Amino acid sequence: MPVNGFSLEAAKRAAYDLMGSLDVSFTLNDQTLCCELRPTGPDVDAAAAEREFRRSLLDHELRLSTEQRTEPMRSAILGLAFSKTGLQRE
User: If DSSP codes are grouped into helix, strand and coil, which group holds residue 44?
Assistant: First the structure.
């Protein structure tokens, strides 16, 4: 469920992408998703890491949206592909 326009799943994926430079904590209250970002070390540029997190968050939200919209087509394609493998009993 998206809150503030972004889903927790997208935020988790973005945090995973940047776990080398950021530690991310999540708080979910009503319709607000808060992400607390902490650099993993003194050599990490916090402002640059935050920008990268925002970009990654948007990227993953768009990917999730595309996955949801195309799921029926992907399932049909996979079903057709596996139906012709000869692995199923007739």
Answer: coil
